[in-house]
Structures are given as structure tokens and as C-alpha cells.
Specification:
The complex is a heterotrimer. By secondary structure, chain A is α/β, with parallel strands linked by helices. Chain A contains eleven helices and ten strands. In chain A, helix 3 runs parallel beside helix 5, helix 4 packs across helix 5 and helix 5 runs parallel beside helix 6. Chain B is of the alpha/beta class. In chain B, the strands form two sheets. A six-stranded mixed sheet of chain B has the order 6-7-8-3-9-10, with helices on both faces. In chain B, helix 3 crosses helix 4, helix 3 runs parallel beside helix 5 and helix 4 crosses helix 5. The longest helix of chain B has 18 residues. Chain C is mainly alpha-helical. Chain C has a two-stranded antiparallel ribbon with strand order 1-2. The chains are: A alpha/beta, B alpha/beta, C mainly alpha.
């Protein structure tokens, strides 16, 4: 594993970043200032077109800001040094098919390693390691057309992890998948986060992702509207509506209970809500 | 009338498997879709939903059994060519339909189907405008579909099928990859099509919560067979069916079930979090009074 | 549903030919072409044919399959044979049909020409029947490498990506066709002029889709460190073995026979 210093500064920082595509009437991103701390799992939420994907691409160095600065580990992301900083960042996109180059999963994981000029032995070592991490060892010899969407995304994630980044950017990785595959991907990401070795920024509109992550930033029209704990942000109905999200049912239920005089706290998970209810009931009886 | 599948079988060869595997996509499926109703076709990916839908406008012929759509009959012994009238009356919207857009303006895109089905230019233009109004994209008629947002392109693609004024609208995962608010918007629109215009709507999805509150009927598929047919409420009362089909009840239902367990009562009927909270508050208050 | 580009062409068998380095097999094609070109009589034709049949048998794929490979080009074979037959006016006249006269020499030329074509086509089949498409593509890239590393690597990657995506694009085309047919597209019933416009309904979205795919793929590649012209190592490399040299050397036999007989 590569060792990265800069323990003090945030891993990723945007200051006043705007991004305007040439010929576009309005900027895709305007005036975004955001800090991502080491080891965090931050979700970016917002409707399609709010700028989530553009923000991810800016962070990945695939796009350049027209205004403002982007810092990776305290260093400005610019010019010739860009590649060295970019090597810390891995990106997973939403289309399972369009990230798959090789004839087999192993070949595909090897693609990035070929770019790193590793030897065959080193490549085999990394391939086995990431396959083990994600539990896809039995998929290594398979052709992409024989994989489900969820399996393709896991394979793509393996290919990203094999490059040994410490920052993972996920652009709505589950949006093209069915619920079960999305769940599979989500638990894989959760396991990665639990190792403490990765800082994760994930664009999504799935409340389950936000619940798993723990910090949420909401966007609309290219602007960052708010950042904080999902329970707090999602309970704000106006904010949720602006970002085309719905306040999750359980959270809304907790808020209603509080209004009726039964304060059980804010919960996104129904089991936690019921536990809190039990606790409340036994306290007051 | 309506749509009826009678013991339909269709197989395909999977030549990536060694030896070639013969997969039963539909295995003796019998199901009825009531006319003028909104039926949700539920099941995990691979359960046969897409294959079923492709029978509805004659794109695919069953290898065994027969399919009756309105007064048309489709079976293995029937001629391969399907009358264009069936294609018009049974509108099929594929998954990610925005991939099929190609015209220079939304208007021309919406006129494609009516023109192909023999409506004159004038009538086709009117049909296009109407379909656009239905989907709320009337203001986009002169835009280039490729320059619209993905949500808008989805609406254009659906309007393109509705422009031919089909009696039956079958959609394959129309809410795939949409954000939550857009999903809700689309499903209630489909429900309106059904109620206000008497169209038969069949919506295939793997997400039960998308259709809860809108669908009149549910048909659940697993392994190419029908596992369950009935109302959504009846389905929710069958956790075994849902598990076998890979469906999960929405969080609201799960919460209500847990609360019912807690208070040792039946879960209430509720429309929103407020009602469920009121019921719970009532239970808590009653419990408080009851204890010594 | 189809995992390989052209299902049914590559047939896996445990044969010594299958195991050979695809580069050797490709180069051997060149030698075989030379041998076929040098055929000018029955003796050398027989020798080269015997050689070809021996190799086909060694590949453990039925001769019937090789014969089937010739079928689509049969018209071409017959055309060439006929042309040669009518062009060669040596020997005694055999038959007459209007302005055309068939001579003995012409008959022989025609048959030899047909034989040469058949040998050539069926031997090409040995290459495609015994080598997976992606390995073949890599072999071509490998053979071109001495002429320019960067360009050869790019070519190899292009072929690789094309092979990976062509099945996907065919499937997408199929889906698009079904979708447009559902909207009333009926190619059978249309006048030629309308047909052309109607094909646009298929080709335009397919092209847009392919471009989108390409852009997304490029992003993924860039994010994984791909840089044009930069040095890269290879995960899969062919290892040339003595058996491959021997295989290539074998082909001197038909060349020599065609030359001397």
C-alpha cells in the first residue's frame, strides 16, 4: 500500500469551484466549496442534472475547473503534476458495460496495471488480492457478456482498487442496477470504508446509500445547498423536494411522532426507530 | 378481452454455456391482464418479465400455448407477421427507451409512430402535441431530443409510444435509474392514463414500492412462471411469495409490521407517515393508561 | 447472449494446431499463400492439397466443417474456374456453347484455379477455427510491433476493444430494431426510398449510442491511467516455443513441392 502523508489537511478540497462547458448557457457547477476528510464516506445527492456527475469528474481530474481550485492532500491539482495526484484517485462510473475493456475480468483488472507498467507477477498478485477483497475470485475467467450488471460493477470496482488508490469516487454506481445488485455493491463499499484505508465520495439518489455513508452534501442547479448528517438534511422537506428526493418514510414518521409529543429521535432505519419507541415506552410507563 | 396468456412456453439457447443450455424464459405461464386496469408485473431480473412483454405486441411468438391480445391471437401455429393494427393498439416501451431517439426535434420524434401507422401529417401532428401535453413536455416540442436531460428524454420516448394512441401500454422498468421524485411522477401519470383514458397499463418492475398505491393488480413472476396474481394488499400479506420472487416490502410496510408486532395488533391501513404516527401515538397512550 | 464475436467459428479442441502461437499460424498463412500461388500442375496441386488435409485432420475438426467454410464463396470459386476455363484456349476443343468453346487446356486450367481457391479458403479456416478472435487480434498487433511500438500497441488495443464491444453493439442494434418495429417500422412493406429513411431510425440512435459508449469508455480508461503513446507492459503475452518454429518450418514443404514439382 502506498503511504500518503498530509495527515492534517483534508484529503480532498474544493474552493469556489465553478465549471462551465464551452457553449453552455449556464455553468454546470458554481461556487462549490467542500472539504472531504480522510476516511470519510460522503454522499452527493441531487436530481439528475444538478451537477453531481460534473463534480465527481472535477475531483477525478477528468475535467478542469473554469474558476476556483481543487486540492488533493493539500496540493493543487494542476498541470504536469496532475498524473501523480490522479494516481491516488479511483473512479467508478454508472454504466457497467462501458468500463469493461478486457476479454475476461482478469484481463480487465490488468488493463490499469499494464498502464502502471507492472510485471506479470505483480499484476497476478494484485488481481488475486482485489478479487479476494471483493469475493469475485470465481469471476476472474469470465467474459463480460456472461456477467450480470452487479457483477460487472464489482469487477469494475476491482479494477479500480487494483490501482491502489486511497480516494474512491463513485458516480451513481448503482443507478443502472436492480435493487439486489445495488445492495451487493453497497455492502462491498461499506466493507471498504470499514477498513479505514479509503476516503469515499459517492454521487447517488438512493437513501440507503446516504444512510450507510453518514455524511451528505445536497446539490441543486450546480450549487452546493447544504452538507451535514443525512438524518438532519433529509428531514428538511423543502430541501429534499428541491433535490428531488423524498424524505424517507421512517424519518418522516419519527418527525411526526415528535410533533405529537413523543420524541424518539431521528432515524432512517425502521428497526432503530422501533427500538427507540420501545425505549421511550419503557421510560414513561 | 384484455390480454391473456395461456400456458405460454418460450425457450432460448444460451450458447455461452458449455454444453449449450436451453433456458425456459417462460415456462407454462398463464396470466390475465384485465382491460382498463393498471397491472404491475413484478419479479426479479431474469424472471421473464421482459420476455412476457414482448409477446404482447407480437414481437415474439410463443413456442407453446397462446397469447390473446384484444381480438388477436398469437401462437406458434399462427402466421409470423403480425397485423400492424396490433402493433398500434399494443404499445410497448422498452427499458431505457431514450436510447431509441433519433429525430431532429421532439415533435418529429413523436410523429414517427402515428405516421408509420398511417395517420396523415395533420393528425400525426395533433397526436404528437397531445402526447407531449400528457407527459408535460409540450414546451419541448421544438427542442433536439439529444440535448435534453435524461429525465426529459425518458418522457419523450414514452410520449413517442403514446402518440399512436394505443389501447394497451406495456412498459419495461420505466422508472429505471430515475431519481425518486421522477419515479413517483411517472407512475402516477401511468395510473392517470388508466383511470382517465381507460387504457390498459402493464408495468414491469422489480420495485414493489414504486407501484404501491397506484396498481390495481399485481402479477408476480419467478423462473418464467406465475407465482401470484392479486391485489397489492393481498401480495403484502404473503411474505413467502415476496421472498420467493426476490421482492422486498417498502420501508413503510416494514415499519408498520414491526409496530404491529410491538403492540400485538394488526398493522393499520395508512396513507402516510402522519397517519401511522397517529395510530402509534394512540397505542402508546392506551398502553400508558393500561399499566398500573 | 453470445459470448464470442462470431459464434461457431472458433471450435475448441485439444489439438497441436490449437496450441500453436497465433503469430506462427498467421505467418504460416503467408507461406501457404505462396505455395498456392506457385501451383501450376497436378502433381504440386496434389502435394499441397495432401499437406492441407493432413493439417486439417491434425486440428481434430471434421473435414465437413472445412468444406462448409468454402460454401459461402462457392460462387466465386466457380466464377474464377469458368473464367480460367474460357480464357485458356490450349489443347483440343471439347465442347461448344454459342460463341464459347471449351478446350482441354481450359478445362485443366479451370479445375486448377478452382482447386487453388478452395485450398486457400479452407486453409484460412484453419486459422479462424483454431484460434480465438482476441488471440488472433493480439497476434496481428504482435507481428506489427517491430514496425513501430506505439502504433502497434494502439492497433492491438483497438482490435481488442472492437472484439469486446461488437457483440454488445449487435445486441443493442437488435433491441433498437424491436423498439422501432414496435413503433410501426415495417421495412418489408416500404418503397426503396422510404426504406433508406427508415434505416436512419436504426442507424442514427445506434451511432449516437456507440459514440456515447466510446466517450464513457475513454473516461474510464483515462481514469485508469491510460495515456496515448506511454509505455505499458502486457498482461497476456505469447511465448514463442520451439514447436512454433517447427510448425512454421513445416510450411516450407508445400512451398518447395509447389516450386519443384
Amino acid at each position: 500500500m502506498k503511504e500518503f502523508t498530509n495527515k492534517g489537511s483534508p484529503v480532498l478540497e474544493l474552493r469556489g469551484v465553478s465549471c462551465r462547458r464551452p457553449g453552455a448557457p449556464a455553468p454546470a457547477i458554481s461556487g462549490v466549496t467542500l472539504r472531504v476528510e480522510r476516511g470519510e464516506w460522503l454522499c452527493l445527492a441531487g436530481r439528475n442534472g444538478s451537477g453531481k456527475s460534473t463534480l465527481i469528474r472535477l475531483m477525478a481530474g477528468l475535467l478542469s475547473p473554469s474558476e476556483g481550485d481543487i486540492f488533493v492532500g493539500g496540493e493543487r491539482f494542476a498541470g504536469e503534476d496532475g498524473d501523480r495526484l490522479r494516481s491516488r484517485i479511483g473512479v467508478l462510473f454508472s454504466e457497467p458495460d462501458d468500463q469493461f475493456i478486457g476479454q475476461t475480468v482478469a484481463d480487465d483488472i490488468a488493463f490499469g496495471l499494464e498502464n502502471l507498467c507492472l510485471s506479470r507477477e505483480e499484476m497476478d498478485g494484485r488481481i488475486d488480492r482485489v478479487a479476494g477483497m471483493l469475493g469475485i475470485g470465481r469471476l476472474l475467467g469470465r467474459h463480460p457478456s456472461t456477467l450480470s450488471g452487479g457483477q460487472k460493477q464489482l469487477a469494475a470496482l476491482a479494477a479500480v482498487l487494483a490501482m491502489e488508490p486511497d480516494i474512491l469516487l463513485l458516480d451513481e454506481p448503482g443507478s443502472m442496477l436492480d435493487d439486489r445488485s445495488r445492495e451487493m455493491l453497497r455492502s462491498a463499499v461499506a466493507r471498504l470504508h470499514a477498513t479505514g484505508r479509503y476516503t469515499i465520495v459517492q454521487a447517488t439518489h438512493d437513501p440507503e446509500d446516504m444512510l450507510a455513508a453518514g455524511r451528505l452534501a445536497m446539490m441543486s442547479g450546480g450549487r452546493l445547498l447544504a452538507a451535514g448528517r443525512p438524518e438532519a438534511l433529509l428531514a428538511d422537506e423543502k430541501l429534499a423536494a428541491e433535490c428531488r428526493l423524498e424524505t424517507p418514510f421512517v424519518l418522516a414518521f419519527c418527525r411526526e411522532m415528535a410533533r405529537l409529543g413523543f420524541g424518539i429521535g431521528d432515524h432512517l432505519d425502521e428497526r432503530k426507530a422501533v427500538e427507540a419507541l420501545w425505549a421511550y415506552a419503557s421510560r414513561t410507563s | 378481452m384484455g390480454v391473456r396468456f395461456e400456458n405460454v412456453m418460450i425457450h432460448y439457447r444460451d450458447d455461452t454455456a458449455e454444453p449449450d443450455a436451453v433456458i425456459a424464459a417462460l415456462d407454462g405461464l398463464s396470466v390475465r391482464f384485465a382491460p382498463g386496469r393498471f397491472t404491475a408485473l413484478l419479479g426479479a431480473p431474469g424472471s421473464g418479465k421482459s420476455t412476457l412483454l414482448m409477446h404482447v405486441n407480437g414481437l415474439v411468438r410463443p413456442g407453446g400455448g397462446r397469447v390473446r391480445v384484444f381480438e388477436f391471437e398469437i401462437g406458434p401455429d399462427r402466421p409470423k407477421d403480425v397485423p400492424p393494427e396490433l402493433r398500434r393498439r399494443a404499445g410497448l416501451v422498452f427499458q431505457f427507451p431514450e436510447q431509441q431517439l433519433f429525430e431532429a426535434t421532439v415533435r418529429r420524434e413523436l410523429m414517427f409512430a402515428p405516421l408509420r401507422f398511417g395517420l396523415g401529417r395533420e393528425r400525426a401532428e395533433r397526436a404528437a402535441a397531445e402526447a407531449a401535453e400528457l407527459l408535460g413536455i409540450g414546451h419541448l416540442l421544438d427542442e433536439n431530443p439529444l440535448e435534453l436531460s435524461s429525465g426529459q428524454r425518458r418522457k419523450v420516448a414514452i410520449a413517442a409510444v403514446l402518440a399512436a394512441d394505443p389501447d394497451l401500454v406495456a412498459l419495461d422498468e420505466p422508472t429505471a435509474s430515475l431519481d425518486p421524485a421522477s419515479r413517483a411522477e411517472l407512475v402516477s401519470l401511468l395510473a392517470r392514463l388508466c383511470r382517465e383514458r381507460g387504457k390498459t397499463v402493464i408495468m414491469a418492475t422489480h420495485r414493489l414500492e414504486d407501484v404501491l398505491g397506484h396498481a390495481d393488480e399485481c402479477a408476480v413472476l419467478a423462473g418464467g412462471r406465475l407465482l401470484f396474481a392479486g391485489t397489492p394488499q393481498a401480495l403484502l400479506a404473503r411474505p413467502d411469495v415476496m421472498k420467493a420472487a426476490g421482492l422486498s416490502p417498502p420501508p413503510a410496510v416494514r415499519l408498520a409490521a414491526l409496530l404491529a408486532e410491538m403492540f400485538r395488533d394488526e398493522p393499520p391501513a395508512f396513507a402516510g407517515p402522519g397517519e401511522l404516527a397517529a395510530w402509534t401515538a394512540g397505542k402508546l397512550a392506551a398502553a400508558g393508561e393500561g399499566s398500573p | 447472449m453470445t459470448g464470442r464475436l462470431v459464434p461457431g467459428r472458433y471450435a475448441a479442441r485439444p489439438s497441436p494446431i490449437h496450441r500453436r502461437d497465433p503469430r506462427a499460424k498467421t505467418l504460416s498463412m503467408v507461406l501457404f499463400m505462396a505455395a498456392v500461388f506457385l501451383i501450376d500442375g497436378w502433381a504440386d496441386a496434389a502435394a499441397v492439397a495432401a499437406f492441407a488435409v493432413a493439417l486439417m485432420l491434425a486440428s481434430r475438426i471434421s473435414l465437413a466443417r472445412y468444406a462448409k467454410a468454402v460454401r459461402p464463396l462457392l460462387f466465386l470459386v466457380l466464377f474464377i474456374a469458368l473464367f480460367q476455363a474460357l480464357f485458356d484456349k490450349s489443347g483440343e476443343a471439347l465442347a461448344n456453347a454459342g460463341p464459347f468453346t471449351l478446350y482441354a487446356g481450359g478445362l485443366a486450367s479451370g479445375v486448377l484455379a478452382a482447386l487453388r481457391m478452395i485450398l486457400f479458403i479452407s486453409f484460412t479456416a484453419i486459422l479462424t477455427f483454431t484460434t480465438e478472435p482476441d488471440r488472433l487480434a493480439r497476434a496481428i498487433g504482435g507481428l506489427v510491433r517491430p514496425f513501430g511500438r506505439a502504433a502497434a500497441d494502439r492497433l492491438a488495443l483497438m482490435l481488442d476493444i472492437a472484439l469486446r464491444f461488437l457483440p454488445t453493439i449487435f445486441e443493442e442494434g437488435e433491441r433498437l430494431y424491436k423498439a422501432q418495429v414496435s413503433r410501426g417500422l415495417n421495412l418489408g412493406d416500404m418503397a426503396m426510398r422510404d426504406k433508406a429513411r427508415a434505416l436512419l431510425a436504426l442507424l442514427a440512435p445506434l451511432t449516437v449510442g456507440v459514440f456515447r459508449r466510446a466517450l464513457r469508455l475513454a473516461e474510464s480508461m483515462e481514469a485508469r491511467g491510460y495515456r496515448l503513446g506511454a509505455p505499458r507492459t502486457r498482461y497476456r503475452e505469447f511465448r514463442w516455443q520451439p514447436a512454433d518454429t517447427a510448425y512454421l518450418a513445416l510450411f516450407l514443404i508445400p512451398v518447395a513441392s509447389a516450386f519443384w514439382l
